Amino acid sequence: MNISRAREILKNNISNNLFIHSIGVEEMALRLAVTYGVNGEKASLAALLHDYGKIFSNDRLYRIALENDLVDDITLQEPALLHAPVGAWLLQWELGIDDEEILEAVKMHTTGIAGMSLLAKIIYLADYIEPGRTCPGAKEIREVAFSDLERALLGAVNLTIKYVLEREKIVHPNSISFRNSLVLSLRKNNQELQGYEAY
Ligand SMILES: [Fe+2]
Ligand SMILES: [Fe+2]
Q: What pTM did the predictor assign?
């Protein structure tokens, strides 16, 4: 799979809005990749294809997930989460992508998880702050994204969890593990977060 083929697949299969979003995620992921020393081609491919699962209906995603035992019960209950792990599975088995890092980045792009790769972190962040995003805090997070990756990621995961809580949706435990890993890592290096220890 090369970048122009990935763009072609997208263009032929997804809505115009989703195409523009995916190109925006690619642009942001590439800039982050340069800043943090991540392979640009992998960043491009993972970004372009991160929402590949959205080509398919929720019913189809649900069926594929069930038939192939791809996800946990929480993901099965929350349609917004399904497109990430099922999308990664489809990239592997339909499009023949076998790069583990790209597959992980796509699989984890909605929840994140503690210990994920730098590529996966960049895709998670780029999805939140691509130029077309106007979601709460996107502007502020964009401002720190190129100087403090973990601070920017914590901002994005905090706001994502807040969004999920406010709508009484299910918070996936991977989002919590991701958030906590960022807090712990920032606490090691950042005086500002030391106060958390008082709780
Ligand atoms: Fe997505
Ligand atoms: Fe996305």
A: 0.93
